[in-house]
Design goal:
This protein has 228 residues and is mainly α. It has eight helices and no strands. Helix 3 packs antiparallel against helix 5 and helix 5 runs antiparallel to helix 6. The radius of gyration is 20 Å and the shape is globular.
């Protein structure tokens, strides 16, 4: 919130309103995900398609993760500039599309539980869009607020920005693999967590091109944070 205090009063008020609006959009998206699961018609159908439960829970988990990222974006360095507003509304629009992607996935299931590659690709594409726009906002906020953050805050701001360098390509590769190799190629997403941990080990501080030109007397060097 430190950077927000440097904004004019009217802009601070607008940022707060945008944060509340984002909570409504994300909350509505999360609350409707469970409603997309089909009511079983027979006892055998309750656990007949376990992958459906996994996909639904994964969608909820991803949206929850991006809700946390949304609040970090708004708290660290968001300013209501034209480009930032466009990126923010694009992010929220893709979050609102998550239930639609899940409905499409459910309705295009084959009679024997076979998965349609286009519906899985759509599902991944929605999360790719969320990742791209949240990453762009995160990088802009990081660059904007870097000079007013203390060392601990800089570590916390850099970690999700660094994760975007892994998350965006992983979703893009998984979506392309689903369309070319088959629906089960989305298992590539399992590589995301270890790749992020590896990136944090080798890039504990932002690269110069990420921060751009910063006031020399305000920039500090970060020491690597030990992984727990």
């Amino acid at each position: 919130m430190r950077y927000r205090q440097t904004l004019p009063l009217g802009e601070r008020h607008l940022v707060g309103r945008l944060e509340s609006f984002g909570d409504i959009v994300i909350g509505f998206s999360m609350s409707t995900l469970a409603l997309q699961l089909q009511i079983p018609k027979t006892p055998a159908d309750v656990f007949g398609h376990p992958m459906n439960y996994f996909v639904s829970l994964a969608a909820f988990g991803f949206v929850a993760m991006f809700w946390l990222r949304f609040h970090r974006i708004m708290a660290i360095g968001f300013a209501p500039r034209r480009l930032d507003l466009a990126l923010l509304f694009a992010l929220l629009s893709f979050i609102a599309l998550v239930p639609f992607a899940l409905i499409t996935y459910m309705r295009l299931l084959g009679p024997e539980g076979s998965y349609a590659a286009p519906s899985v690709a759509l599902y991944l594409g929605v999360f790719l869009g969320i990742s791209i726009f949240s990453w762009a906002l995160n990088l802009r906020g990081l660059r904007r607020a870097w000079s007013v953050l203390d060392e601990a805050e800089r570590h916390e701001a850099w970690r999700p920005a660094l994760a975007g360098f892994v998350i965006v390509p992983t979703f893009a590769v998984a979506m392309a693999a689903v369309l070319t190799l088959g629906p089960f190629s989305f298992g590539l997403l399992l590589l995301m967590a270890p790749a992020i941990r590896l990136a944090r080990r080798f890039a504990p501080q932002p690269w110069p091109f990420v921060l751009g030109r910063q006031p020399v007397d305000r920039v500090v060097t970060l020491e690597p944070i030990a992984e727990s």
